[in-house]
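If your schedule permits, I should be very grateful for your opinion on a structural question. What I wish to show you is a protein chain and, alongside it, a tokenised description of its three-dimensional fold. Would you kindly read the sequence against the tokens and tell me how you understand this chain to fold? Here, with my thanks, is the record as I have it:

===
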Amino acid sequence: MAIRDTVGQLYTPIYDQFLLEGMQEGEYPLQMAAVYDVREDKTSEVKHDDISGRPLWQETDEMSGGNYTDPVLGWPTTFAHKKYTDKFQASFEAVDDDEYFLLKKEGEAKAMGVGCRATVEKLTANYLYAGFSTAIADGQYLWDDDHDKNSEETGTDYDNELDGAFSHDNLETAETQITDNFYTKAGIPIPITGDPILLYPPALRGAVARVMSERANERPGTTERDINRFAKGKTWAWNYNPNEWVWLSSANGGSDTAWYVIFPWLKHLVFYWRQRPHFTTWINNEIHAYSFEGVTRLSYGADDWRCGFASTGL
């Protein structure tokens, strides 16, 4: 029989393993990492200063000076790490009566890992839907129609809030809006150099399949039977990566109609692990129990609206 004062410490590595196994199990895999740029940090908070952007170059006469320009300033964003926990206990008596009692807690530890994974998914998915009503560093909603060009040039606005339900026509209209509004803080067009993620809840599964299907060589739902330019492999369309995310649904705090076009290679949606999920243990002599706590510290958010474009679907 293990000594009571050391039982908790002896089993901590095993529970860490069980917790991590739990995070990797489940019907739905961890999808947050496909949308957010996942980073590590060891400080109390992280500040993105957003000092970037250079203007177009100017023609300069021979032997002349000048044409110095200051960096284009955006809005600084601070990521403050928050702690999330879950706990369970085992009484001295239970451990004393059964030498393998703590080892039999494997299922509970794995369930805590599943809960941690679900927490991360829910937080990061809900952040996207909350972007229709929650401001970011520039003072506007994440998805809004009047983002200022930069902190000094406020006379030019950019619009990353799309209109309408998801459909072939609305996606085509969205591409035009994206092209017309996707500019750097210095006013230089941002090229679409990667494959955008088309992010949507399960309720839009059929609509997305009809628009994106590889077999849809003709435009669906019309009598003209024009080509469907969004069919996979068409060279005259962006190659979207459709990504269904259950945590975007209304049942999980999101919306069954909202849809998003995300540009992950720009890395403006950020997720920080301050402490990855792990176990801590201690002995509570007052109630004669071993206490086990799963702990993680993290932060997440957007440091720039140029992470993507979105529609409420209404």
In short: Residues 1-6 have pLDDT under 50 and may be disordered. The radius of gyration is 25 Å.
